[in-house]
Amino acid sequence: MKVNKFLFVAILSLTLFASCKKDKVAPAVTITPALARDTLFMIMNEWYLWNEEMPTVNKDNYADPYLLMDAMRYKLLDRWSFVADYEEFMAEMQGSFVGHGFRIGLDDAGNARIVLVYSNSPLYANGVRRGWIVKKINDTDVAPILESQNSTAYSNLIGPSEAGITNKFLFQTPEGKDSVIMSTKSSFTLNSVILYDTLHLSTGITGHMVFESFIAPSEDEFAAAFSYFKSAGVQDFILDLRYNGGGYLYIAQQLASYLVGNGNSGNEFIRLVYNSRNQDSNGAFPLLTTESPLSLSKVVFITSRETASASEVVMNGIKPYMSIYSIGDTTNGKPVGMNGGVIGEKYFVAPVTFKSVNKYNEGDYYDGIAPGTLVTDDITHNFDEREELCLKAAINYLETGAVPAKGASEFSRHKQYSEKPEWMKNAFILNK
């Protein structure tokens, strides 16, 4: 599988030689927006998955690669192709982050609540946890802004992602007390594994992990978590991917390998399929050998509309090897991914270049992967509280095999806001 060819296109388009003589040195290339745009145009025509369906455009009508990407996307299916600042992208994928470190949303009663908070973040250090009510930010009521889904007003309220910006939060704690916290945005490393623990159920010991993104730090976090699960004798598994928008495919490959176990090492996890011009790039990601394999027969997933890309790849890829069941909401619906290219360490370009299928050639879930049981994301409880609706339903399914009758409980969905960039909802192969 020759995944590096894509990068060669970008390199060749940016390499200028003054002479073929050995004593001549190639001049430095200034990466202008126009040069990056022209490079992206070549990449799209050669490598874009839908290169035969994308609009015909005159590249010279667009000033930079950002505008050209938007013009060339095959909008009927492609919601994901993007261009990003190279340094910002690499920092994000290495887990480097600037902010307060939280996600916020509305509960069914109309309260703004903390949905998630990273363990290295300023707010976590101040004791803030999932489920806390956010009454005001900078003396402004937050709930009406979230209710109106006014992203601009929310962004203006919270400010840019810059270290040193301080916001005043008025929280209501789980005990019903008001708490004013002055939080200053800072730089810290994200934890992608938000929580891992074991549940002692009537059916045995069940592993439980809340996993938020497939990024570089995940590798070491998996090693710690699955060593714990292995030593605990985990028999079943609940994997909470409800806020996981994707990331690196090699991390997805590792996660699947821990779950499936070493007995299937070398067998196909997923296969990547490129456009008609690049069929010789098609190839498989095999399951790996890990130090703490679980060899599970059953996994219950917790999902939402934010469960995207690499998360869906794991769900689809392990399905041939075990029983899977999902609880929550229908996933995002992204059965495709990108070979990311770097232009002069200034731009990161990520057009959709392949679709993924599992061992049985199953894929194309553009409408998302529907859950077996539709359950509201219960942000009034923390992830490890057994009364949290999704966790409660997952436990009930494992212990009884039963699912709630259709319509037994009212389902609701509310928009949430994260400090992370939207392009994180992707599955990447980063060519180096």
> Main sheet, how many strands, which sense, barrel?
8 strands, mixed
Mean pLDDT: 89
The percentage of residues in β strands lies in: 25-35%
CATH class of the largest domain: Alpha Beta
CATH fold call of the largest domain:
2-enoyl-CoA Hydratase, Chain A, domain 1
CA-based shape: globular
Q: What's the total count of β strands?
A: 23
Q: Can you offer a commentary on this structure?
A:
The chain folds into two domains: 99-189, Roll (Pdz3 Domain); 193-430, 2-enoyl-CoA Hydratase, Chain A, domain 1 (Alpha-Beta Complex), CATH 3.90.226.10. Helices cover 25% and strands 27% of the residues. The protein has eleven helices and 23 strands. It has helices spanning 5-14, 33-47, 65-72, 86-93, 122-125, 143-148, 151-158, 218-232, 249-260, 310-318, 389-400; strands at 82-85, 96-99, 102-106, 112-117, 133-137, 140-141, 166-172, 178-184, 186-189, 193-201, 204-211, 236-240, 247-248, 268-273, 283-286, 298-303, 323-328, 336-343, 347-350, 352-357, 373-374, 416-418, 427-430. Strands 1, 13, 14, 15, 18, 19, 20 and 23 form an eight-stranded mixed beta sheet that branches. A six-stranded mixed beta sheet has the order 10-11-12-16-17-21, with helices on both faces. It has a four-stranded antiparallel beta sheet with strand order 6-5-7-8. Helix 8 packs parallel to helix 9 (249-260). It starts with a helix and ends with a strand.
